Automatic annotation (TrEMBL):
Lineage: superkingdom: Bacteria
Protein name, UniProt field: NifU homolog involved in Fe-S cluster formation
Entry-linked Gene3D superfamilies: 3.90.1010.10
Native source species: Sphingomonas palmae
Amino acid sequence: MSLDLYTPEISALALGNPYPDRLPEGAPSAEKRSPICGSRVTVDVELDEAGRVTKLGTLVRACLLGQASSTLLAQHAIGRTPAELAIARDELTAWLAGTGEMPGWPGIDIFTPGLKLTARHPSIRLAFEAAAEAADVAAARAPR
């Protein structure tokens, strides 16, 4: 059954991260780690004066699902606010737990085969959790 999750589409997505490098040292950042498999994702963000993500960096040391999720996050994070990233994280968490509708994040339906594989959920959530936290760090540092 878990083989249904590891599709050619997931494999291709995992290889397509548009922001595979970290931002310069000191950029607002967050790292998340899966306690189940040890996958790790670090996300760095910079926000503009309007509070929207203008730069994104990642360091992904994760399984195929963590890599694919990181790519999906990176493909659509630019222009988002910290609140929008938090909503995406929360919607993804609820959907995976079976308590919410499919999130509106573009392409997230690629993970539908993993809904019943709860041990894989942390890997799918990593990038979204790290991005939301990094954006909150960036917002807290922003001049008021």
